Amino acid sequence: MDACRALLMSLGVLSLILVPTSARDVPVKRYVVNLDSPPEEHFLPICQDPGIQELIPILKKDAKDMITSVVPAEVLPLLEVLTADLDQYLPQPFAGEMRGIANCTGIDLGQIVILNIVYDLTAFCTSIVAQDSKGTIWHGRNLDYGFGDFLRNITVLIDFQTKGQTLYTSTSYLGYVGALTGQRPNTFTITVDERDQGAWWMNALEALLNKQASLMSFLVRETLAEADSYDAAIQRLAYTPLIAPVYFIVGGANVAEGAVITRDRTSALDIWTLNPAQGRWFVLETNYDHWVEPPAHDNRRAPAMKAMNTTGQDGINASSMFQVLSVHPVLNKDTTYTAIMSAAQPQVYNTWVRWP
Ligand SMILES: *[C@@H]1O[C@H](CO)[C@@H](O)[C@H](O)[C@H]1NC(C)=O
Ligand SMILES: *[C@@H]1O[C@H](CO)[C@@H](O)[C@H](O)[C@H]1NC(C)=O
Ligand SMILES: *[C@@H]1O[C@H](CO)[C@@H](O)[C@H](O)[C@H]1NC(C)=O
Ligand SMILES: *[C@@H]1O[C@H](CO)[C@@H](O)[C@H](O)[C@H]1NC(C)=O
């Protein structure tokens, strides 16, 4: 931990942004993935890190337990079809990357594939995009998983580079090739919140096998890699067919660039944007459509909004956003990490593991 903090300090990352955290809030380790190498090798720097290698036996066991508890037995044959012919069904670099991770961790390729789909569909979260009084856009998120205990140990921050330059950055887990939180420097930031639509496994896998739809986290990574403007990112996220409904929360580098995209599988149902001129200086999404009241048993929206209102537009910055995301129950026992980003100040991007 101290070595990690020291490394970040030496990179000048923490010196630029001082977020007051408690001793238990540990900034995650940062790695570089070289996109110019073959996909099979992309994640080797993470996988081969001795600190991560140590955790692989626990990861193996936890991954197996998680899969048994969340994946319905009737879809396992479909998953086998998918895994047996990965290149046929999943685009590059994802197929090659999963093979490389399976090879390096010794975890069965089928399990790696399942993990990637499970993470995509079970993320409970809070995401906020806000514009401060000076016009700077801030984007913060908590990622909550009911089975997140082992994920905290394998949470990493990755700079995806080409020719030595960071094309995009993402918070991820070892074994996970998609992106649920990411930034294209000076352009946009994206987070994904789950939008629960009941029984989705069969539909989702059929769509994947028919190559009619994308995994949400793959779309985010492709958008980070390929969209060269905020508007291009919004278009892509709003209108690319997906295997399941989801919320995309997007922040830009310019004034008023911030939106919550409510998606069904085919297209955007709603795009709710910042409108600072009319007083809407932040948009906030948990896991419920913003136009309906969240259920009483899971109302993280009201406490988060109250904390934003109390902080006020003059008071919002990286550290006050972190504080908002630390208010109970926005921060809860399932929260695995908090990430803070600001597309116009890419060096701000950091992620802290949150222990219950
Ligand atoms: C699997 O790993 C071994 C070394 O551990 C390497 O020689 C081999 O090329 C790898 N295979 C793939 C498909 O990445
Ligand atoms: C996480 O790692 C710590 C050591 O750093 C270990 O004590 C703990 O058991 C691990 N937790 C899980 C759930 O893997
Ligand atoms: C926050 O402020 C907005 C705008 O003034 C108001 O509509 C909303 O009810 C407030 N929410 C909470 C939870 O304080
Ligand atoms: C962030 O805003 C808070 C008020 O919400 C203020 O106390 C703090 O000094 C600010 N931090 C920075 C680094 O500007």
TrEMBL record:
Pfam families the record matches: CBAH, NAAA-beta
Enzyme Commission code: 3.5.1.23, 3.5.1.60
Catalytically driven reaction(s): N-dodecanoylsphing-4-enine + H2O = dodecanoate + sphing-4-enine; N-hexadecanoylethanolamine + H2O = ethanolamine + hexadecanoate; an N-(long-chain fatty acyl)ethanolamine + H2O = a long-chain fatty acid + ethanolamine; N-tetradecanoylethanolamine + H2O = tetradecanoate + ethanolamine
Gene Ontology terms for molecular function: fatty acid amide hydrolase activity; N-(long-chain-acyl)ethanolamine deacylase activity; N-acylsphingosine amidohydrolase activity
Keyword Glycoprotein: yes
Gene Ontology CC terms: lysosome
Similarity comment: family membership: Belongs to the acid ceramidase family.
Stated name of the protein: N-acylethanolamine-hydrolyzing acid amidase
Gene: LOC109471119
